[in-house]
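Standup notes
- DV: blocked on the single-chain target, sequence here:
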Amino acid sequence: MPSFATEVKNELARLMYEDACCRTAELAALLRMGATITFGLHHTFGLNFTTENAAVARKTLQLLKSEGGGVRTEITVSRSRRLKKNNSYSVRVMPAPPVAKLLEHLGFLHDESLNMDSDMGILKKNCCRAAYLRGAFLGGGSVNRPEANYHLELVTGSYGLGNLLYTLMKRMDFPVGFTDRKDVYIVYLKECDAIIDFLAMLQADKAVEAFEIARNIKEVRSQVNRLVNCETANLQKSVDAAGRQLHDIDILKQREGGLAALPKRLRETAEARLAEPDASIVELGSILGVSKSGMNHRLRKLHALAVAEESRISGTSGKKEGDPTI
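- DV (later): unblocked, structure below
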């Protein structure tokens, strides 16, 4: 089963855009994230782009053919012999004079000097910024399944590119973070709404729908858990209260005359509790035709009498023969 990130990339890789500026921005980010520049004879340039996603490799090839101005390309597949390792797809642009024009078009080359990290020159329009981030995600992004912890990240080996992506997303009001891990730099989002907004901007509609469904399910489960916990706590309180009330009644049975010596209302209450030890106060009140507040009042009176009786019994048992009676 493919990862969720692979599913998102497959969805995004099927998108193509009419505006040439967006295609340029997306290709620039893709190559920044996953390509290296090679050198050929006569000071010519070439490119090698590598990915483990076949759809991303095809998308890169399509963009190179539409934006490359006649550059020669080839694609190769390296089959991994290691268990559960993905194949590797390499898109190669052969070193040739037209590649320099492509690099200049993408902003990678200025006056025969390489521009390694800054692409702000092609990011003046909102549509181009979204396309650039789309390419960055295709080239080095990942996102957890929405059922798991919320996490989306863009990973690059270049600090300058990482900082560019961080700055770009910050300016677009995303609550983005930036950190490093070993030899790579990571731009990340951890809030559900931010990830949904980011994927929506990339036009990953199926992924957005999956996140919204998962979030709704999580919210329903959370509400159910809160209700269950609340109900459990209330039930435990009722059980504890009933236990205390039965203990009070047992104490009052030891009084002279037992429960029969109690006032009628209190005797009826005690007898009802003995007959229905698991009933709630509301249920006891319904049996006796008494309101909840009325039942609470009666049970408090029984408790006060039981405390007084316990004190009396304790005081009596603590006396020694010959002690004066107060």
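- Follow-up: Confidence is low (pLDDT under 50) at residues 318-326.
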